[in-house]
Amino acid sequence: MTQISGDTHLQSDALEDLTSAVNYRKWLCSLGFPHFGDDVLEIGSGLGHYASEWADMGARITASEADESRLRTLRKRFAHDARVTVRELTVPISETADYSSVVAYNVLEHIEDDVGALRSFSGLLRHGGAIVLVVPAFEFAMSRFDRAIGHHRRYRAAGLARALTEAGLTVEHCHYINGPGLLAWYVTCRLLGGRPKEGPMLTAYDKLYVPVERRIESRLRMPFGQSVFAVARRP
Questions:
Q1: Strands 170-177 and 227-233
Q2: pLDDT tens for each residue of 23-50
Q3: Treating both helix axes as pointing N-terminal to C-terminal, what angle do 114-122 and 157-166 enclose, rounded to 10 degrees?
Q4: Is-cis flag, bond preceding 200, omega within 30?
Q5: Is the N end or the C end of the chain the one with fewer CB atoms within 10 Å?
Q6: pLDDT at 13 exceeding the cut of 80
Q7: Which residues form the signal peptide (predicted)?
């Protein structure tokens, strides 16, 4: 299994640029939280925005990073927060543990051997524990920005389910989220060669569009989306 790839400075810049997408982050956090259990490990915690949100929701969480600068940011951010433990964790992962769940949002696509990574994630779980994932969807939306930040692939739901099954996991959920967001990504990143960033368009998207789409997708399963959300368990 290879290490997580991509321009780490650009990754951090992109994470910083999306800080204001509060409603979108709350939406993704609400999807994962019900599957967590009592002791959660987040792989690739970035700047800690998801970890902070989940802690506010009541999770006991360990945030982890391999990148030194982001690890320093995490340690500073959570230095006085007893709800969040911070640790270094690099890929490939050889250790085993007994977490109730492992969550990795927008991480798996950075790892060349995704099945091998999922097997190593499984080794960090107790039996019956859950792996909770969000990954980018649809290869036709692959852009220069995707490649610059180290994306090896974008997924279809069926392909992610196959990878989870091949890794020995039992799939419980695997479906698209943020349906119309796929079009926005395709136009902004693939056709125009841009990237998601702070500004009036992101603010309007987060405040006006996301709450509506979240309500719609709480009732309907979309046949497409910007991302795939998945939950799978270690037997």
A1: antiparallel
A2: 999 999 999 999 999 999 999 999 999 9
A3: 60
A4: no
A5: C
A6: no
A7: none
Helix (H) and strand (E) counts for the chain? 10, 7
Find the angle CA(213)-CA(153)-CA(108) to the nearest 5 degrees.
75
Q: What angle do CA 154, 201, 193 make, to 5 degrees?
A: 45
Helices 8-17 and 68-77, axial angle in degrees (round to 10): 40
Main-chain dihedrals φ then ψ at residue 173, nearest 5 degrees: -140, 140
Instruction: Return the number of other C-beta atoms located less than 10 Å from residue 194's C-beta.
Output: 13
CA distance 223 to 179: 8
- The answer to whether 19 touches 206, Cβ cutoff 8 Å, is no
Q: What are the DSSP calls for 75-132, one per residue?
A: HHHTTT-TTEEEEE--SSP-----EEEEEEES-GGG-S-HHHHHHHHHTTEEEEEEEE
Tokens of 190: 């693939």
Asked whether the whole model's pTM tops 0.70, one would answer yes
The one-letter amino acid code at 106 reads: N
23 token code pair: 């409603």
Question: Does residue 92 have a cis bond before it (omega within 30 degrees)?
Answer: yes
Q: Are strands 99-105 and 40-42 parallel, antiparallel or unpaired?
A: parallel
DSSP annotation string for 117-143: HHHHHHTTEEEEEEEEEEEEB-GGG--
List pLDDT tens digits, range 149-207: 999 999 999 999 999 999 999 999 999 999 989 998 999 999 989 887 777 888 888 99
Strands 125-136, 227-233: pairing kind: antiparallel
Retrieve residue 39's tokens.
């002791």
Sign, CA torsion 181/187/188/191? positive
